[in-house]
Amino acid sequence: MGSFVHNIVVDGTGNITTPFRVLVIGGSYGGLSAALNLQDLCQSRAPRCGPGPVEGQQLDKPREIAVEITIVDERDGFYHLIGSPLALASESYAEKAWVKFEDIPALRSPNIRTVHGSVQYVDTESKIATVVANGGDPTTSQIQYDYLVASAGLRRVWPVVPQSLRRKQYLFEASEHIRASANARHGVAVVGGGAVGIEMAAELKLVQPQLTVTLVHSRSQLLSSEPLPAEAKDASLVLVREAGVDVLLSHRLDRTEEETSDNGSDKCLRLHFTNGHTMLADQVIMAISRPIPSSSFLPAQALDKDGYVRIRPDLAFPADVANGDDHFAIGDMVSWSGIKRCGGAMHMGYFAANNVYRRMVQRIGRGGEGDVKELKEIPPMIGLAVGKKAMSYWPQTGVAMGEDVMEAFFGNDLGFTICWNHLQLGESRVVA
Ligand SMILES: Cc1cc2nc3c(=O)[nH]c(=O)nc-3n(C[C@H](O)[C@H](O)[C@H](O)COP(=O)(O)OP(=O)(O)OC[C@H]3O[C@@H](n4cnc5c(N)ncnc54)[C@H](O)[C@@H]3O)c2cc1C
């Protein structure tokens, strides 16, 4: 395949009339942030996730640039991943947590299109992505681009994350799971005391208080693999217990066996631990597997040994990848310091948008591109929802926990409204 060259056409007034083509892979926190902040900049507005204006300070308005943004996602909508523990415990919340792209006002713009498909391959040299459509016919198509932002996150297993790719199918998946746990007479065991296991156990207990929920962890402390101070780990244990969840620490699951009552009518599972302890449960939720970056469509040269994208501080691909300067990666799929968080993904989306915009202005050859945004080292920080309360650890403020922390970090819907508003997804800003 030959190299794709963008022909820039300048009209009599000096405006660029041939749009730059930007491909965003993944329409979640990172991808939507990149797409919408870029849209702002290209429409000569302050980027929505950037710092607000300082009183009295005159900032240069970004230069208007024609752009066409294509967002490809395997799902048919934005799924509020953080809300998964609640979406898989409450049917009404499940309805709220997945919004089809066509129902997001901010994406209603003639120069933004969404494609429901899976990116299979990216040729960074020719700047062509191969996409297989999801739903309907599995047709393959190719998308040419000038700049690419990858925000495809991590592959996570069921039931940590729903596996459905359409909203309708997801609602069935969630509802079946919720009904199965509601009927669990012997209770539910959640295996894995990391952030995901803690949140899943606590949300289940919150929504179905009659249920016995046991959180099982192989180590002596919750959040044992996170680079957090012991105080944060201890605080999470206090909150989990307060939420009414039974906790078994230092219990490593060996195997589960199906068990049937004497009259054969009652089936459940017996969990055997390596320390000899056993317990019964009707449902076992495994929240222990290590997620894998969704990066198989990228050239191996761009990835580290674990499949994370080796970004530079400006979020661009490594310089030894063909056209590395025109390819960016953000969010969970990148190799960078810090605990993977949605706030980090949205922040990187803003930086990537800024830096793509900057490349465009440089390409056109007229100044005013603004500063390049570079990531600094991100220290460990976390906000963890545990039932009605939350625990947070921030390097500047240390550990905090309580209902006020829940309100500040998650509001009353596990952060859905906070993320929705931060990305201004409810606002359509079509410029005539
Ligand atoms: C259960 C759970 C609870 C969490 N709780 C919190 C929390 O309380 N606070 C917090 O800050 N973070 C939390 N996180 C982490 C947070 O969800 C992630 O950091 C965040 O989702 C990262 O955003 P992203 O845009 O990088 O990736 P994702 O949100 O994973 O989005 C990736 C998108 O890419 C799409 N995609 C993947 N591969 C392809 C492909 N080949 N082609 C097309 N599309 C593709 C996916 O469908 C998806 O929509 C939690 C995570 C989980 C699983």
UniProtKB/TrEMBL annotation:
Residues 20-349 form the FAD/NAD(P)-binding domain. One of its GO terms (cellular component) is cytoplasm. It comes from the Eukaryota. InterPro entries: FAD/NAD-bd_sf (IPR036188), FAD/NAD-binding_dom (IPR023753). GO terms for molecular function: electron-transferring-flavoprotein dehydrogenase activity; flavin adenine dinucleotide binding. This is Pyridine nucleotide-disulfide oxidoreductase-like protein. It comes from Bombardia bombarda.
